[in-house]
Amino acid sequence: MSATGRYQYLFNPLRIGPLTVRNRVVFSAHLTNYAADGMPTEQHAAYYAARAAGGAGLIITEEHSTHPTDWPYEKLIHGFNPAVIPGYRRITEAVHAHGTPILAQINHNGGQASSMFSRQPVWAPSPVPDPLFREVPKALEPHEIREVVAGYGLVAEHCVAGGFDGIELQCSHSSIVRGFLSPATNKRTDAYGGSLANRARLLLEIVDAVRAAIGPARALGVRICGDELIEGGTTIEDAVAIAQMVEAQGKVDYINTSIGVATATLYMIEASMQVPPGYAMFIPSAIRAAVSLPVVGVGRFKDPLQADRALAAGQADLIGVVRGQIADADFVAKARAGHATEIRTCLSCNQECVGRMGLNRWLGCIENPRTGREAVPLPAPRRRGQRVFVVGGGPGGLQAAVTAAERGHHVTLFERSDRLGGQVLLAASVPSRAEFLDITRNLVAHAQRAGVDVKLSTEVDADLLLAERPDAVILATGATPNAPWWAGGHPRVVDVRDVLEGRAVPAGKVIVVDELGFHQATSVAELLADRGCQVEVITNGMVVGQDLGVTLDMEQWNVKAAARGVTQATDLVPMGAAPADDGDGVVLSLQHHPTGTDQTRAVDWVVCAVHQRADDTLYRALLAARTGLPAGPHSPEGRQAGDLPFTVTRVGDCLSPRRAHAAVVEGQRAAVAIA
């Protein structure tokens, strides 16, 4: 069987209007926050070029704004400004160097925006405020509709001057066109409102303007929302009819698809691991059955075989793979070469891609420290062949070991337990979080390919390191549970890790204390509820699992909590834990901090999702060996005169307990810094 023989359709070329793509994998449009002052940057060029080099069949950039009234977030490319053209050329030249066509997505976000940046009212078909931005938009007047249409044509001209191979119109999850198409947001009574034909009028006028601007030699696509998942919104029947109207116009070369609205139902657009792969493929299936144009399907595709099966089933003609290629720029090339098992599989955790967007940060990836940094080359190793010892086999240690080995060093990784993965093993053991284990599987396989010598069930102390005298030591020894001050040593006040590692088996009425605002509390609450416990989650914050909103897991958590009878209480600070009268349970004293009033809960167990303590015992032992004096908490890292015979660097939780992305970034950084 040839390298691509296991795939029926994935590597078949396809004609899209004037273009021919070499395979069916599309790097679909998504926000990056790489723009600076409204301009595309070198990072854009490097980012898209990396995916072109990695084999993507077609690349579609993030959206380019078509009008000054459209500025919903800070780092948006202002396509209406002709100053963007040199940046466009840098992007297209970088991508074309790898033989890959690239389209520019252009858009006006309409009422799904605010006036914070533009200092102008937002425009929309009707004065219906968006549930996220909560700003009443200005309903467009006829002359403003003409101005919007002209803006699309102008930006299309800029894209042609910038070397793009075509245009995609974003009419799906966040767009003024979507606003016109949807009966939920279009309440007009003129020629642009009422019937579906009237609501689609703006789209068809924009198609006319853009086709006139780009001519016949460039491709034009339209991205349509198949189901907004909101009351009174666009349905799949509407989407099929819209696609048929677009095809009948005879000026569009393909249809792309989407699901949800980027504000009200965003959690279904960029679905986390809580949602099954391929969940949105009913949309391209229905549209493909109704039109003859090529149709793009999307929906959390993690590996090339999933994509090929969707193509074989006739669900779509092309497959959009975004997060899969964010995690591994060589996604397609590895599949084509027969090395699909080497793909760094996306976790669908949304922490550093979608999550960073929500925090107004540039796009990254929890498991790929190069994502978002493609424009910054790594320095070449100054001296190869050094002996590097890495202590700790969690994400930080594994990444350090992989990077050091790839840079030509001889790496030995020590792990005290009999499995690699660290706390990832626990995080992936709870309901609906098993895919998080992919970060470990990916790194372990990578370490094996890189030739890392792994020693499991091996405790490392200062004497061993001093006896072996490696050139560099990287400590990734993690963190340990840290009982909160208010627990008072009560045996039934335990840590989340005590539950997940089997040291405690809570039963009956259980309170889970959420001081971290992430998956730790909600995951263990779900687990205990499934075991039959009566669970209440309390937090000192305003929302239980507050950061689940950033990763788009909040909606799924609330649905599952309600289904399992898990209750939630906010703004409560634990003040003490005392034995119950029967001697077994816990009486938890709480203060409602907005009012200062006191409450108590009598329960059988209390499970704490609280901050951990850095396990820096080995680091301190090395400091003591170096100085002959007790180690202080703020001792400097690295080599000094009369110091240890090797450099010492801490990464991840043993430096400061945080989330997995910090460990991965620091693991790479420590390995690159080896002299």
TrEMBL record:
GO BP: fatty acid beta-oxidation, unsaturated, even number, reductase/isomerase pathway
Assigned protein family: In the N-terminal section; belongs to the NADH:flavin oxidoreductase/NADH oxidase family.
Protein name (Swiss-Prot/TrEMBL): 2,4-dienoyl-CoA reductase
Domain NADH:flavin oxidoreductase/NADH oxidase N-terminal: 10-341
Superkingdom to which the source organism belongs: Bacteria
Record has Iron as a keyword: yes
Keyword DNA damage: no
Listed cofactors: [4Fe-4S] cluster; FMN
Domain FAD/NAD(P)-binding: 387-620
Keywords: Flavoprotein, FMN, Iron, Iron-sulfur, Metal-binding, Oxidoreductase
InterPro entries with a match to the protein in the record: Aldolase_TIM, CHP03977_oxidoreductase, FAD/NAD-bd_sf, FAD/NAD-binding_dom, NADH:flavin_oxidoreductase, OxRdtase_FMN_N
GO molecular function terms attached to this record: 2,4-dienoyl-CoA reductase (NADPH) activity; FMN binding; iron-sulfur cluster binding; metal ion binding
CDD domains, per database record: OYE_like_3_FMN
Coiled-coil residue spans: none
